[in-house]
Amino acid sequence: MAAPPSAVRPSAAVRPSAAVLLLHGGAETGLAAPLPGPLNLPGMRMRPFARTIAGATGGGDVLVRTARYAHHGWNGPREDPLHDALRALDALGREAGEIPVVLVGHSMGARAALRAAGHPLVRGVVGLAPWCPADDPVDQLAGRDVVLLHSTRDRITSPRASQRLTARARLAGARSCLVAIRRSDHAMLRRAGEWHALTARIVTGLLDLGPLPGPVATALRLPPDAPAVAGTLDLDLLEASRNRGPVPWCRGGGTGAPW
Questions:
Q1: For the segment 17-61, what is each residue's pLDDT rounded down to a tens digit?
Q2: Which of 251, 213, 214 is CA-nearest to residue 234?
Q3: List of domains in the chain
Q4: Among 186, 195, 237, which Cα is nearest to 216's?
Q5: Rounded distance, CA 84 to CA 49, Å?
Q6: Contact yes or no for 93/109 (Cβ under 8 A)
Q7: What are the DSSP calls for the chain, one per residue?
Q8: Taking the mean position of all CA atoms in its chain, how far away is CA 138?
């Protein structure tokens, strides 16, 4: 797999203060190595996220790295991308010391990010269209900020499963919420600019480099027993509801799900 072009390296005189680790998607099974360079479409999808995050964090003293996978798939109990993520976090620690890290993962990469969140460097996780099996553990999320973004039209991974995970994570001691994105897709191609910009705003907020969107900040303060729908935000209403707290999942303020 080609080296990530989005990696931002500080000058030798600048000590890193934080890092962002990107984890791209993959497949349920697959022992082959990911394809190289532009042939690795899941990896290519993360490049604009890396550029936008680097720009939002100012570059310089914030490292932006992309995890390398040994295998294309999750591969059942092997959990290959999880181990790749943990190795990448260990490498960040050796390179930069005990700095806060936000994990940004898409699909299978988001599953790996959620599972690796117990690593001592991790401050938060931003999961993009995450793969959230109902039996995956959540105890490792205690004390972390977890923000999931999911298209309401996703047919590859389940937005309902993401919503349920936010409630499970809160009960385990995490601060969590979900942003539902209408009129998009699993590959994040529709409304791509909004995916990139919102992710960058959330990352900078989680690293205390800028303000979180108001409704996201409020949702992260929900009590542990708050129902899943209470922490579900609608991207279309997010800007309009700035500083008003969590918004209803739908324009009519109903009690179901937006998908």
A1: 999 999 999 999 999 999 999 999 999 999 999 999 999 998 679
A2: 251
A3: 18-238 (3.40.50.1820)
A4: 237
A5: 20
A6: no
A7: -PPPTT-B---TTS---EEEEEE---BSS--SPPPPGGG-HHHHHHHHHHHHHHHHHTSTTEEEEEPPPSSSB--GGG-HHHHHHHHHHHHHHHHH-S--EEEEEETHHHHHHHHHTTSTTEEEEEEES----TTS--GGGTT-EEEEEEETT-SSS-HHHHHHHHHHHHHTT-EEEEEEESS--TT--TTHHHHHHHHHHHHHHHTTSSPPPHHHHHHTT--TT--GGGGEEEHHHHTTTTTS-PPPSSTT--SS---
A8: 15
Sign of CA dihedral 23, 120, 228, 82: positive
Cβ atoms of 83 and 230 closer than 8 Å? no
C-alpha–C-alpha distance, residues 112 and 54, integer Å: 22
0.70 surpassed by pTM: yes
Question: ∠ at Cα 104 (225, 78), nearest 5°?
Answer: 85
pLDDT in tens, 234-253: 999 876 655 454 444 443 34
